[in-house]
Amino acid sequence: MTSRFLPLGLLVMLAACGNRYEYSRASFNGPLQCAPYARERTGLKLSGSAASWWGQSSGRYAHTHTPRPGEVLVFRATSRVPSGHVSIVRRQVSDRTILVDHANWEPGRIDHAVPVTDVSARNDWTLVRVWWAPVHGLGKRAYPTYGFISSHDSDDAS
Length: 158
What we know:
- Pfam families: CHAP (PF05257).
- This is CHAP domain-containing protein.
- This protein is an alpha+beta fold.
- About 20% of the residues lie in helices and about 35% in strands.
- The longest helix is centred in the N-terminal third of the chain and has 15 residues, at about 1-15.
């Protein structure tokens, strides 16, 4: 009798080991999105997917690889973030760490003062790791970025 229930017991135990913070891709497609949040907060006149902002902003807004408060860090589209992502720089903490505000990195949430660390070989902010609240630390994955868009017109940039 006991051997009949052993497989069921093992399945229940394995299910309990699952990561309760795994999200389906669909959970990132709710009403709260990073691009509209960043547009509202910065005044950038850009639309569409977050990854498209870098190309759209060319010639309109200054591009840089040095973070400054109020600038937007633009993440490239990847299999993990198919539409890319945008975050607003709050402040720089060190040469390789900034704090950002962003929406929907964790589905349905707006997060403030989130650490983002530059892990690029050239220290040019083209590869970053982002704080992941469910694990109370930087996420394991590194994400490629284009750089930062300034909310100033390209003519105003120094």
